[in-house]
Amino acid sequence: MGPGRAWLPFKAREWFDAAGVDFRWDASVRMAPFFSPRITDAFQTGRGSLTVSLFGVLPFIRSRGPALDRGEALRGLSELPWRPFAFRTSPVLSWQAAREDQVRASFDDGQTRVTADFDIDADGHVLGVSAIRPRTVGKSLIDTPWSGVFHSYKTFQGVRLPTYAEVSWHLPQGPFTYWRGRIIEFSLLR
Q1: Fewer CB within a 10 Å sphere, N or C end of the chain?
Q2: Burial class of residue 162 (count of CB atoms within 10 Å of its CB; 0-12, 13-18, 19+)
Q3: Is 7 within a domain?
Q4: pLDDT digits 0-9 by tens, 96-123
Q5: What total of structural domains would you count in the chain?
Q6: pTM of the prediction?
Q7: Quick check: 69 and 43 in contact, CB under 8 A?
């Protein structure tokens, strides 16, 4: 929740669109005994949303708007290593070589445009991603350097993807890693 604060365990399930950056992430975060708010984070049909609710039905935080659309589109773009089939040609995604070991991906659906850089190893595995992403500070969203790392690749149903990731904001006082996760199950829905 913030630099120097304790980690909070969570369980989540995420659905991805195979051809773009759309996703929906539903999580339950254990914050205290008998207090596990539900979080829904999404980018769907060109719009980002974040909702935190009690018992999954009583929303007490809702966030929407163009800056959130950019932030959620960047999240969806950065999670392409978990749906490698989306790296192919798409009308909303474009690619260019940034360096020998880095590709730049851009998402543009006519309303929201975002760009992220992916670090790639010699085997074609994505090792990291970086971008400038809107970060919530009080009631404002501030563009902030942001990055993620991926590793521990495994094959699920013929799809090779990283099973571990962590994400950090790069603040003036130093990096703040705010999310760590391990993929324990993956399935293709057709």
Answers
A1: C
A2: buried
A3: no
A4: 998 899 999 999 999 999 999 999 999 9
A5: 1
A6: 0.90
A7: yes
Given the structure tokens 């399935």, which residue do they identify? 187
Q: Give the whole-angstrom CA distance, residue 59 versus residue 62.
A: 7
| Domain encompassing residue 94 | 12-182
Q: Report which residue type is found at 29.
A: V
SS (H, E, C) the chain: CCCCCCCCCEEEEEEECCCCCCEEEEEEECCECCECCEEEEEEECCEEEEEEEECCCEEEEEECCHHHHHHHHHHHHHCHHHCHHHHCCECCEEEEEEECCEEEEEEECCCCEEEEEEEECCCCCEEEEEEEEEEEECCEEEEEEEEEEEEEEEEECCEEEEEEEEEEEEECCEEEEEEEEECCCCCCCC
Residue 120 inside a domain? The answer is yes
Q: Are strands 159-171 and 23-29 parallel, antiparallel or unpaired?
A: unpaired
